[in-house]
Design a protein that fits this description.
Elements (H helix, E strand, L loop, with lengths): L2 H15 L3 H17 L7 E6 L6 E8 L5 E6 L5 H29 L6 E9 L3 E5 L4 E5 L14 E10 L6 E5 L3 H11 L1 H5 L2 E9 L3 E8 L6 H6 L4 H9 L4 E6 L4 H8 L7 E5 L4 E6 L4 H5 L4 H10 L2 E6 H4 L3 E2 L6 E2 L2 H85 L10
Parallel strand pairs: 6-8, 10-11, 13-14
Antiparallel strand pairs: 1-2, 2-3, 4-5, 4-7, 5-6, 7-8, 9-10, 12-13, 15-16
Length: 432
């Protein structure tokens, strides 16, 4: 057997698997010892040496005393040892390569807890998701996933190394996307000021998949910590939100004054007053009436995150509640005391009566105007009828006179014609 060719093949395997050649040669030597012991007449103990330069394999038989010390050693390499060794060593070398790969992966990721890694989703179910990190595999338990996040096979995602275990069948890299420190790692990736130390994230409060609050502090008076994390037109925080699949991120400024810090933590709500009980670590916060729901947040989320961020139990009250006024649950408005309520009811009743009177008066005026207009219209119609009747009577009166005049004219004309016809010439008219 050409051992040089075998060594070349082993070196190729070492490069492919990323395992040192010495590790493979050590595994090969152990495999040769196991193969030698299976040959007829083999010594009970033996050792094998491999010359890397020449590729020569030498088996030494050994005799040990009761204490395990070597008392005699001789060369005992079988004639057909190459063929036997290759057949026996295959499985041993394969297993040794796996073990070496696991050790290498463990050495590569050991101590990297807290680092941010990028992986490709290999599989995902309700129990866990497997990520391919390129040179290793990572597991993400269901408890470390963002709630309701869908991880499709082939998706490239970022994750936070939570733990590296070296027990069992090999190293196990446990990653998380729900851990609060995952937010810090994402911001460090986008904000150079965090890496340089000009800006520091002092506290993080998170409800994965819903909302996160972070408190930032600037160590450089020329650097705005909130603006540095938000970025130009929100570009930096937008990258973080996109990686979190739309999870809301509130960035507030850290304050040494506890009252001011609690006010900041409750943003975007405006706070009027903060009262502290340092012994009980309780803060009573007074907000305007219209800011109460905003300060509490949906299902109390804003108040819970502010409490986690500041370390104080926060009791939020409106100004009306602080004055002892009851709040209407439906409207959210304060309910006045009985005397004030009665006074307001009286004023309201008077206002209603005045309004009703005004409306009635206006209605009466409108009705009067409409009645007058109707009367005027009726009178106009009656006048028109009378005018028509007068015109008809005038026509009727004028008709007889015209008839008489016409008759007289006709008689006169007739008489004149007769006189001229009956009176002879030269005689006087008897009528004269």
């Amino acid at each position: 057997m050409d051992f040089n060719l075998m060594l070349d093949a082993l070196e190729g395997v070492a490069r492919e698997k990323g395992v040192p050649i010495e590790t493979i040669l050590d595994a090969l030597a152990n495999a040769f010892v196991s193969a030698y012991k299976r040959t007829p007449g083999a010594a009970e103990e033996a050792r094998v040496t491999i010359d890397v330069d020449s590729g020569e394999i030498t088996v030494y038989g050994q005799e040990l005393d009761e204490d395990g010390n070597v008392v005699r050693e001789w060369v005992d390499t079988p004639d057909d040892f190459g063929r036997i060794a290759v057949q026996t060593a295959k499985q041993v070398i394969t297993q040794r390569l796996r073990d070496a790969k696991r050790e290498q992966v463990f050495d590569l990721y050991d101590g990297r807890e807290g680092d941010l890694v990028t992986g490709i989703v290999q599989s995902s179910d309700h129990r866990y998701a497997m990520l391919d990190l390129g040179n290793a595999e990572a597991i993400m338990p269901g408890s470390e996933r963002i709630p309701y996040e869908r991880l499709e096979r082939g998706n490239r995602i970022k994750a936070y190394i939570l733990e590296v275990r070296g027990e069992g069948k090999g190293p196990q890299i446990v990653v998380s996307r729900s851990h609060p420190e995952f937010i810090r790692s994402l911001f460090e990736l986008e904000v150079p000021e965090l890496v340089d130390g000009d800006v520091e994230i002092r506290a993080i409060a998170r409800e994965p998949g819903h909302r996160t609050k972070i408190a930032v502090l600037s160590h450089d008076p020329n650097v705005d910590p909130v603006g540095a994390c938000v970025g130009a037109r929100g570009s930096r925080v937008r990258q973080v939100v996109n990686e979190l699949r739309g999870e809301k991120v509130d960035i507030v400024e850290w304050r040494d004054d506890t009252r001011a810090f609690i006010s900041e933590a409750l943003s975007p709500a405006r706070v009027k007053e903060v009262r502290l009980d340092e012994e009980e670590k309780v803060a009573t916060v007074i907000v305007p009436d219209h800011q109460l729901s905003l300060a509490i947040g949906k299902e109390g989320q804003n108040a819970r995150l502010a409490a986690r961020l500041t370390g104080y139990k926060i009791d939020i009250r409106s100004e009306s509640q602080d004055l002892g006024l009851e709040i209407d649950e439906e409207t959210g408005l304060p309910v006045p005391p009985a005397a004030e309520a009665a006074k307001e009811a009286t004023v309201a009743a008077d206002a209603v009566e005045e309004a009703v009177a005004e409306v009635a008066e206006e209605a009466a005026e409108e009705q009067a105007v409409e009645a007058a207009e109707e009367q005027v219209a009726e009178v106009a119609e009656e006048v028109a009828v009378v005018e028509e009747e007068i015109a008809e009577e005038a026509v009727a009166d004028a008709a007889p006179e015209a008839a008489v005049a016409e008759t007289v004219n006709e008689e006169v004309e007739v008489e004149v014609v007769d006189d001229e016809a009956d009176t002879p010439a030269g005689e006087e008219d008897p009528a004269v």
